[in-house]
Amino acid sequence: MTIAVTSLRRGAPGRAEALIAGAPVWLEADAEVDLPMDAIVSAFFIPALRHGAPLVLDGALSERLRSQLPYVADIVREWWGWQGALPVEPVGTPASTGGFLSPALRRSALLFSGGVDSLFSLLRGPVAPDALVFVDGFDVSLHDVARRDAAYALVRRVADTVGVRTIRVTTNVRTHPLFASLSWEQTHGGALAAIGHALRGEISHIIVSSTPSFREIATPWGSHVRLDTLWSSEQLGVLHVGATHRRSEKLVAIAGEPLVRAHLRVCWEHRGTGLNCGVCEKCLRTQLLLLEREQLHHFRTFDLSVADLTAAVEALPFVYNPVTLELSYRALDAARLPRAVADAVQALIRRSVAEHDRRRRSGHVVGRVRNRMSRLFAGAR
Questions:
Q1: Cβ pair 231, 200 in contact under 8 A
Q2: For residues 282 and 318, what is the distance between their CA atoms, to the nearest angstrom?
Q3: Whether residue 171 sits in one domain with residue 112
């Protein structure tokens, strides 16, 4: 079995298309855009490894990316055990000559959602970006036009405040059948790098904000300090920024910034009409940390009262991610929270532990991850 990759002629200006396993993938932007093989392989190599079928390309990869794909495959095999093959390039493609070439820093762009990670990269990162890139179809569904426009308007306001341009990209990569056959948590790093490759006529470097920190380097994740830079080419450098801090530490570091207080957007479940629903798990953990630090009342993008926040924590069945449970909820200082909120958090932790134990006994993956994380944290102490 193989997966055919066919480049299509560009359609309208600012649009590029390809066929992957017979299904179209497309990308549009308000900037110069293309879908080189480097972009396609960055997004689809891990799904291809999962299915054990090589990508058969109708164009050549850059030498640097080609030379780094075996390392990507090794990491994927280590994390998830998938044994796949490297992409197959057209007959006559020159072999790599060796050595790594890096592009000169001309213009950098930060992939920006308005969340904690990307705001930290913007305000505390080592590279000041020349542009903020917002991607329709990643955090917000392509079908949710109103929310996409509202999220992009937020990005525009942030960009105007700091004096950089915006690039808006729209793509169906996340809903493509091959890409969507795996979880976003496993594949999103390659998709983010693909956006950079698609914009390489506009930028020399794409900045990807970390999720796990160096202290969680053993945690498998689609965007990771071990993986992200391996998607680089001679034309596009992928920079992984922020792994020095855990997300909670990032939030504490930037919570006093007026830009953050006015524009922080963390929600991905979108249960309400606002940019932050306030009641999903990610919204709740963010508000709890801000409340603990006596910062929540400054944030214009959250509007729950303490009583409403308490009720929302009580209504949450359990915290799905064991890492989040350890690093976000157990790390809260109950003495710095209102009594009712602290009690609700402790009850949530008990529910979550019980659910993870139940899943562990039944062989569920969440339970296995919790066991692994418990051993990891025990060793760290």
A1: no
A2: 12
A3: yes
pLDDT bracket for residue 369 (50, 70, 90): low
DSSP string, 124-155: H-SS--SEEEEEETTSS-TT-HHHHHHHHHHH
- Is 259 part of a structural domain of the chain? no
On whether the CB atoms of residues 290 and 251 are closer than 8 A, the answer is yes
In this structure, is residue 248 part of a structural domain?
A: no
Specify the DSSP class assigned to residue 296: G
Regarding whether 286 and 216 lie in a shared domain, the answer is no
Q: Are 101 and 64 in contact (CB under 8 A)?
A: yes
Is residue 94 in some structural domain? no
- The torsion angles phi and psi of 266, rounded to 5 degrees, stand at -115, -15
Q: Tell me the pLDDT tens digit for each residue of 294-320.
A: 999 999 999 999 999 999 999 999 999
pTM of the model: 0.92
Mean pLDDT of the chain: 93
Which tens digit of pLDDT belongs to each residue from 121-166?
999 999 999 999 999 999 999 999 999 999 999 999 999 999 999 9
Nearest one of 208, 199, 193 to 129, comparing CA atoms: 208
In which domain, by residue range, is 46 found?
3-89+106-241
| Secondary structure in 3-state letters for 177-242 | CCHHHCCHHHHHHHHHHHHHHHCCCCCCEEEEECCCCHHHCCCCCCCCCCCHHHHCCCCCEEEEEC
What pLDDT was estimated at residue 381?
37
What is the pLDDT averaged over residues 173-185? 97
Cβ neighbourhood burial of 167 (10 Å; 0-12, 13-18, 19+) = buried
pLDDT at 94: 84
